[in-house]
Amino acid sequence: MKILVTANLVPFMHGGANYHIAGVVNALQAAGHEVELLRLPFRFSPEADIVRAMSHASEIDLIQPNGVTIDQVLSLQFPGYGVAHPDHRVWVMHQHRAVYELYEPAKATTELADLRERVIAFDNRVLRAAKTVFANSRRVAERLREFNGVSATPLYHPPAQAEQFYCEDALDYVFFPSRLETLKRQHLVIEAARHMRSPLKIVLAGDGGQRGALAQLVERHGVGDRVALIGHISEAEKRAFYARAQAIVFPAFDEDYGYITLEAMLSGKPVVTCSDSGGPLEFVRHEDTGWVEAADAQALAARLDWIAANARKTADAGRRARDAYASAGITWDRVVQTLTRSYN
């Protein structure tokens, strides 16, 4: 089949979305399909630019551009899922979160409140018109049902280079690789370090808009001997840090999916997450493949101290996590079969 994939282009901002986009394109091509990727420029502000982006997407007709018949369109992101095609399938990574679960009416400007109405109307219209809708995770499907009344099927996919993760004997640290952004909540882990009694170290990898603020927080709390902000690392370095960690810490707020959880499981490491962390809760079973704690610095500190004192039990949890991933059937072959399935 000739399949066109739509996604966003946000210059010089790289994260999990890029891995997802590249992964699905490569998997479709490996399955023998002809695939083109259409990336639409996107800006998160001002609100007027987002309105224009929705309008632009809605005007794109992909039924037979330049006389070429496209058999199927697969859209991954807002607002690109507004394009028109008779066999339009949408796999939602997440919606425009600023007007959904992150929206705070008391703090919203008039422009944001107006945008919220426009985006919800847009999503209601285009998602209900799609031939089928999948969601990146059960959490994303829950939001679609809650806010839009749209039924979506959760469809999980592997992280990039899944086959290259490995496990080695643990050293005395926990690892947290992620963009340094408020929603990832590295600050919560730094706060936890103040309350810890064990010598366990915390390694925070990645870069982002909160790096300066987090560095100041480490200094202010006097935990520089315990918390290391190591900045950007290569993929090979990331896998090595996973392999030797006692456990992985991932307390993000209402995460959509969370590659970190899956990468940890592939590395044979348990995950410490929070009760409001969203996507990770679909994989982390408390006191089995990891631990689910309150989003509270003292609760996280107590769990990290427990990990330091219980190396064998922690390693056992990591082995169960790796087995759980293996039994979950998360493969690109399964994704492609699901996305390209024939419908009557």
From TrEMBL:
Domain spans labelled Glycosyl transferase family: 173-322
GO molecular function, one term: glycosyltransferase activity
Superkingdom, taxonomy of origin: Bacteria
UniProt-listed InterPro entries: Glyco_trans_1 (IPR001296)
Coiled coil: none
Signal peptide: none
PANTHER family, per the entry: GLYCOSYL TRANSFERASE GROUP 1, GLYCOSYLTRANSFERASE
Protein name per the record: Glycosyltransferase family 4 protein
Source organism of the structure: Paraburkholderia tagetis
Organism classification: Bacteria, Pseudomonadati, Pseudomonadota, Betaproteobacteria, Burkholderiales
